[in-house]
Design a protein that fits this description.
By secondary structure, the chain is mostly beta strands. It has six helices and 33 strands. Strands 10-9-12-17-14-15 form a six-stranded mixed sheet, with no helix packed on it. The structure holds CU-O-CU linkage. Its EC number is 1.10.3.2.
């Protein structure tokens, strides 16, 4: 214990120094070695409750180490990271390391009932993984119920010592983690939404680093501010940790240059606004090259679905030039209209990898998954209270019209220990019915918008070269869905509007972005490619939390390959029990 906290302090205070350097491997080939780290960094996460006062109310929220947002995990590329999570709260918890590819460490991935059972109150679990060939901006978040509404924090991974950024070194960097604040317990909120059969209420506020900003009630002084020196360039690490909303961000009078998306470098892209779906991270450079003043940073809604209710008040922070008078007039930030799909698609189309590695040009596994919402027939008692979805039905969501149901012990344990009866391996590789997905709603059969329900996985042979088309449907309403894949980054080789048509789709096999979350365009499609070379069970789901609760999810099982470097190790001894 003592030793742990000493090491943590040492590592925290020396972000760019290696704490230990037991480099015990030589790189022989691509994956022909264990993904052990150059250095090891220890963290201790105490999950506990703390009082916060926001929007005129004080209440208890679950956080980590009494911080909100939670502590930043710092590391360098190839470091080994060990985080002991101690659950001192009254609720189940797991932590997911979003964007970390978890090479040969699926047991530490964190989604509840997928790779582990939850850490129960009073229990602990130690996550252990390597930032293997990864650097940039990531985040960690709870992966149980809607707990990530308050349990989240940034992960910042620097390049190896002596390796520069592929852009001029910024004067300073700041992390902006975007969220949604709910004036109620988020775990109860999920239960209430599911029990109602209807949609979720809007968040009570959008927040930047936990601060709603002055437009919200009782929040005049509850804002986030970056103090800048005129003429200097700043690196902003933007993270969307919101539960249910995609968000636009902008800084008044300042352009942003995107240099990294989902912790992989991109060719520089100059933008006025940026849209982040939950689960997306971007690094942008901002030059303080405007007249000395106080500029707003604004965070507001992007909502591409029809007839949805959402929070429409922007969260405001400040980009404050030194020398600007405290009371000087503020330059207002302009956000796009909430449904401005053009800006979203032009940003996406402009996203290009800086360097491309491991892009499979030949494909041996072709998959096609539809994504969207469903309305199930009301089969509940007390329909007035429990079937509040459209037309007196119950909201659901699905991939290939299958709504995912979590099993009672984790899929990874069921798979590894060959326990029967917890899942089936028949998740379809293509939709069971082909129709006009975008315009042909209601879905399969006229007026039948029901989905199938089940715990189905799709099995991939080790090393499969996969192309997956993600196709939005108009079953209930077309909508941009941020689809996140665990265990991999993927190459976004194409996207477009309407139904995917292989004859006309233009694919970029030159410099596609390498990301882990793709905002599939509203009423459109995205084509992604990856090599299934990481054995384990990997969740793929919409990162809008309510869609995941409704079943917009599935899991891949990636089989072992040959030999120890292609085989999932045995589970850690302290893996929580259900
Ligand atoms: Cu950040 Cu399964 O999610």
């Amino acid at each position: 214990m003592k030793r742990h906290s000493f090491v943590t302090a040492l590592c925290l205070s020396s972000v760019l120094l290696s704490c230990f350097a037991p480099t015990a491997f030589a790189a022989i080939g691509r994956y022909k070695r264990w993904p052990v780290g150059g250095s090891t960094r220890f963290y201790e996460f105490k999950v506990n409750t703390m009082k916060v006062t926001k929007l005129c109310h004080t209440r208890d929220i679950v956080t980590v180490n009494g911080l909100y947002p939670g502590p930043v995990v710092y590391a360098q590329e190839d470091d080994r990271v060990i985080v002991k999570v101690i659950n001192e709260a009254q609720t189940n918890v797991t932590i997911h390391w979003h964007g970390i590819r978890q090479r040969l460490s699926c047991w530490s991935d964190g989604p509840s009932y997928i790779t582990q059972c939850p850490i129960q109150p009073g229990q602990s679990f130690t996550y252990e993984f390597t930032m293997y060939q990864q650097k940039g901006t990531f985040f960690w978040h709870a992966h149980v119920s809607w707990l990530r509404g308050t349990v989240y924090g940034a992960i910042v991974v620097y390049p190896k010592t002596g390796v520069p950024y592929p852009f001029p070194y910024p004067y300073e960097e700041h992390t902006l983690i975007f969220g949604e604040y709910w004036d109620m317990d988020v775990v109860k909120l999920e239960k209430a939404v599911l029990a109602s059969g209807g949609g979720p209420p809007p968040a009570d506020a959008f927040i930047i680093n936990g601060h709603p900003g002055p437009i919200y009630n009782c929040s005049t002084n509850d804002f986030y501010q970056i103090n800048v020196v005129p003429g200097k360039t700043y690196l902003l690490r933007l993270i969307n940790a919101a539960l249910n909303m995609e968000q636009f961000f902008s800084i008044s009078n300042h352009k942003m240059t995107i240099v990294e998306a989902d912790a992989e470098y991109t060719k520089p892209q100059l933008v006025d606004h940026i849209m982040l779906g939950p689960g997306q991270t971007y690094n942008v450079l901002v030059k303080a090259d405007q007249p000395i003043a106080k500029y707003e940073m604004a965070l507001g809604p992007y909502m591409s679905a029809q007839n949805a209710t959402f929070q429409n008040i922007s969260s405001i922070g400040y980009f404050h030039y030194s020398g600007a008078a405290i009371n000087s007039l503020t330059q207002q930030a302009l956000l796009p209209q909430f449904n401005n799909n053009q800006i979203v698609s032009s940003n996406l189309n402009g996203l290009r990898s800086l360097n491309v590695t491991n892009l499979p040009l030949e494909i041996d596994t072709n998959l096609f998954f539809t994504i969207g919402l469903n309305i199930q027939n009301c089969n509940r008692q007390n329909p007035n209270k429990t079937c509040q979805g459209p037309n007196g039905g119950i909201f659901a969501a699905s991939m290939n019209n299958v709504s995912f149901v979590k099993p009672t012990i984790s899929l990874l344990q069921a798979y590894y220990n060959m326990i029967n009866g917890l899942y089936t391996s028949d998740f379809p590789g293509v939709p069971l019915k082909i129709y006009d997905f975008v315009n042909g709603a209601p879905n399969n059969i006229p007026n039948n918008t029901n989905s199938l329900i089940g715990t189905k996985v799709h099995v991939l042979e080790y090393g499969s070269k996969v192309q997956l088309i993600l196709q939005d449907t108009g079953t209930v309403s077309t909508e941009n869905h941020p689809i996140h894949l665990h265990g991999f980054s993927f190459h976004l080789v194409g996207s477009g509007s309407g139904n995917y048509n292989p004859a006309t789709a233009q694919l970029n096999l030159v410099d596609p972005p390498y990301i882990n979350t793709i905002g599939v365009p509203v009423g459109g499609w995205a084509a992604i490619r990856f090599i299934a070379d990481n054995p384990g069970v990997w969740f793929m789901h919409c990162h809008l939390e309510v869609h995941m609760s409704w079943g917009l999810a599935m899991a891949f099982i990636v089989k072992n390959g040959v030999g120890p470097f292609e085989t999932l190790p045995h589970p850690p001894a302290d893996l929580p029990r259900c």
